[in-house]
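Let's do one together. I've listed all components of the complex below, 609 residues spread over two lines.
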Amino acid sequence: MTLGFTLAYLTLIVLIPLAGLVWRSASLGWGGMWHVATDARTLNALKISFGTSLVAALINVVFGVIVAWVLVRYRFPGRRIIDAIVDLPFALPTAVAGIALTALYSKNGWIGRWLDPLGIKVAFTPIGITIALIFIGLPFVVRTVQPVMEEIRKEVEEAAATLGATRFQTISRVLLPGLTPAILTGFALAFARAVGEYGSVIFIAGNLPYISEIAPLLIVIRLEEFDYTGATAIAAIMLLISFTMLFVINLIQAWSRRRYGYAT
Amino acid sequence: MDVRVSGVRKEFDRFPALHDVSLDISSGELIALLGPSGSGKTTLLRLIAGLETPTEGKVFFGDEDASLKSVQERNVGFVFQHYALFRHMTVIDNVGFGLKVRPSASRPSNEEIRRRSSELLDFVQLGGLEKRYPAQLSGGQRQRVALARAMAIEPRVLLLDEPFGALDAKVRKELRRWLREIHDKTMHTTVFVTHDQDEALELADRVVVMSQGKIEQIGTPDQVYDTPNSPFVYGFIGESSSLSVRIDDGEVWLADRALGLKSDAPDGDAALYFRPHDVELVDGCGGCIAGTVIASRRVGATRRVELEIGGAAERVEIEIPADHPAREKSRIAFRPKHWRVFPKV
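Okay, and this is what the predicted structure of the assembly comes out as:
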């Protein structure tokens, strides 16, 4: 009964739209599909989308883990406020974030004006896209890692210390390996979200074809040209890549769960 | 390795957890720190390990001042109540961890680490489980792994914090006997914390009874059981009954009656302590304690009765033979065989 309900719901909300997407793009045929996929502009857009998303997700893993650690282990005034701020990117309309970031990083912005003389351009380049994606991806890492961290007993660290492990050895050999599955999940979520992000990116990206044009934007452009098949083809390619990556990450997780016996 | 705790005081945020505690442990001894929760026993253990630093006072390992050393340098084996195993490592990797993190100069080769770890696993009777992960073991097995892991670093002293606290009663008893065997084979200086008096009395060479951040009494199990030196120890170890009495000229008085017991306690109000099972029943009463039975229940081979004594209606428990004819409302007279009088504070 519950299984039936779950399947019906999933089908309605997720599978039917995705199937529609595949069916629509299939009308192009393999040749047409190949043509769209190997088009230089499409390739560049995909490269930028997946490249910036990957970099942003990696950066989020590093800093997200640190933020989670500080929130879990340290008690300081304002901790609850900081904890709440982490969720802001979830709640904020992404366009607002995009406009704010653009204002900050453009040539005359608060931060951009200091970077510009150094020859660093952030707005309207892939760096800007990455920054926007870091912004929207951070809570995914923090919120997946935090609860697992809270379960790590202080005793485990103390045990490592009594056995002679330095602080660095305790972190690298005891704490981080235990967090790996959670970190992987956080990475996967932040990455998936970044690949699909649209609102916050289009403002700061500048959307120059071949340079700072992301795949979701290219889809919108194709739609505006009434090239529905072209748009769905790009979407189908993104779907395929994203699905493959999520599948691989899931495999790694299943493997580590089996290995470490986290099921109990 | 002798361990000496000297004049240690510990405060947490101005709240005192230990007041001026001193304790000498000789090499190869098995010592129990026994007390109710909040008595400071775990704090004392953690201070010896170096997981806490004393506010005042010192800890010596042999002649060396260990208080100057970090946890890592002290080389102690610590076993936690909830095992604290590394759950992403196999059993054998857990045991070998302490050797693997040594600086390369003193680190044995990988084969040597593996050999020693699996020897230790055999020693704690877990041979064959090397490849398991902690989540795949029972509680008792996990605690054995934790002990093997602690012993792998050849610690100068083994410290166990309520090692059996998370296990069920049957496993607990097994592991208790087993720990004693391990200790007799290895002769590691061992300190363990417990709130279970049976565990402490059965296992330890000497028991340190603690209460409210102070040591109440240190002694062999016989000493602390037979000659408790304070009302607290009397009440905490074994069962005890007490009565309000008065000391007058070396004579113990219960209300207006002399009990025929001599005491060298100072004159004034005092409390008489005795064990419920350590009494003799007497007929008629010249110099004895008499009371009315208000409750009686069968406990194993004997019967436990609650008596109401004298005008103040104080209640004490004593044990009588199961076939004793006493029933509710009847009167019983008895005299404690062993007893102690403590002045009222």
